[in-house]
Write a structure and sequence with these properties.
Blueprint lengths: L1 E6 L5 E7 L6 E5 L2 E6 L20 E4 L2 E4 L1 E8 L5 E8 L10 E7 L2 E8 L1
Length: about 120
Amino acid sequence: MKFSIPVGAREKHLVEFSWNQMTGALRIAVDRVTVAKKSIQFLSATNIGGPLNVPEREKWNIAGLEVQLVDRWIFDVGESERHVVRIEKEREKAFAAFRPQKYRVYVDDVLVQQHSGY
């Protein structure tokens, strides 16, 4: 999944998001400068290494195993015109690697884009 979003009125910036659903590789850039990057990841976060610190609605409990359903990235954009950008990726409960995922983009807590896909 790849998408981009312009941010700012007077001070314009471009936020680019790239996620490879098969490998879990992630890249988020602002004006082509990487602000978040994750290498290959094949499993979603679980409670195997300790409890998940996410709201109940954002995790799935199956036979005592908790799986995190929502990944969230939050970062600031701009200097004189500051904005807080939040990108959320929500996976399906079962067979997530083979099903479209939902993506939501918020700027200053206002939903500005939604995407669904691989």
